[in-house]
Specification:
The chain is 34% helix and 26% strand. With 252 residues, the protein is of the alpha+beta class. The chain folds into two domains: 88 residues, no CATH class; 126 residues, Gcn5-related N-acetyltransferase (GNAT) (Aminopeptidase), CATH 3.40.630. InterPro entries: Acyl_CoA_acyltransferase (IPR016181), GNAT_dom (IPR000182).
Amino acid sequence: MTLDVRIQQSVVANLSSRPAPVRTGPFVIGVDPSVDSPGINYATPLPGLEISRADVTALVAAFRSYARKPRLEYVVSTAPGLERLLLDAGFTVEERHEYLVCTPGTIEQLPAPGGYTLREPITDADRAAMIAAQNAAFGGDPISTDADIARIAALQARGGIAVMALAPDGTCAGGGQAVPPNDGVSEVAGIAVTKHHRRRGIAGAMTAEITRRLFVAGAEIAWLEASGEDSWRVYERVGYRPTGRRLYIALD
């Protein structure tokens, strides 16, 4: 089994763990009734299955029936003809990314900067603080909803990892998480540091700690995507290496 296929299967498993996943033909849609965000409610193809125009039409209809924006994320090589079918159906490419992979043999531990501590959010108050910091770091409102808090708690209960960074004054400076491993593979995501605390090494330390915890729990492969050159350099210092390509594509 190729690494691309293993990564794609981990995406399928992640979406299948949503509160109300939908299987339609060769696709799975990760539906979460509590939120309509396209970044959560998206689809991905099952690797190795034939995909037709009729399958794409049915996929769009399924999205519409749940009042969700038709959107997909997937490893390109595992569905080589899919992009053409989606473009013909009116989809537009949002982004193309390389994904990076880390293994127990490549990970480097990066300590938290002086005065900062890294730990798991244990209470709902912890989770709320972490989510608010992540939202602020990504340019949103520094708030967290009950649904957000429940989502992180459920992720942890299923074997996922969450880590928050606490500043010297006790406030949350950022956070990140990893989904529960599937067949030894887990995605690390949501690594974010609020503006005032950036460029101190916190993002690298959080990424390293989340990845370390995954490997201690038995994961074999951790993977993630970098949003720009700065984050790319951070992840490479932790031991992540570029490996394959992913596509984000949606129908407006």
